[in-house]
Amino acid sequence: MAVETFFKLWTSYLASGVEGVAGLLIGLAALQATLRALILFVRKVGRNAGLAELETENIRLRLGRWLALALEFALAADILRTAIAPTWGEIGQLAAIATIRTLLNYFLQKEIDRAAVRHPERLLQTYTPSPSTPSNGLKRMLGKAGITRSETEVEAP
């Protein structure tokens, strides 16, 4: 019985820590977005309106990405809490929370994808280089290791 109590207590502390990380991410993301928005607002005088609009969207989408990550951490904390001898009520509550958070993440990602289509020149999406074309950073790293370009090329299927 003492081992079960220990694991319940440890899992509860772990869930609180993961939830704390989610809160920290939200706080830092809000701070970053606020600072970027203030800088944009101060510099906006005399700027191109279209460029300012793109920057505003970029700030909003960065915040959205951080919030999506924080939602994942919060969901992980809820799962940890429910893993400790759950009742049917807790399982139902977790299902509702997971559904809401999953929908929020889905719609945030859809918005990020739409922005990437509208402005492909802006790196709103993460870039994944194809295996046949290493990125410049990878090329430099491979060059330092003495690996030539021909060794890194991959045949297309």
From TrEMBL:
Residues 126-136 have a biased composition (Polar residues). This is DUF1622 domain-containing protein. The keyword Transmembrane helix applies. Keywords: Membrane, Transmembrane, Transmembrane helix. Pfam families: DUF1622 (PF07784). The chain crosses the membrane at residues 20-42. InterPro entries: DUF1622 (IPR012427). Residues 126-157 are annotated as: Disordered. It comes from the Bacteria.
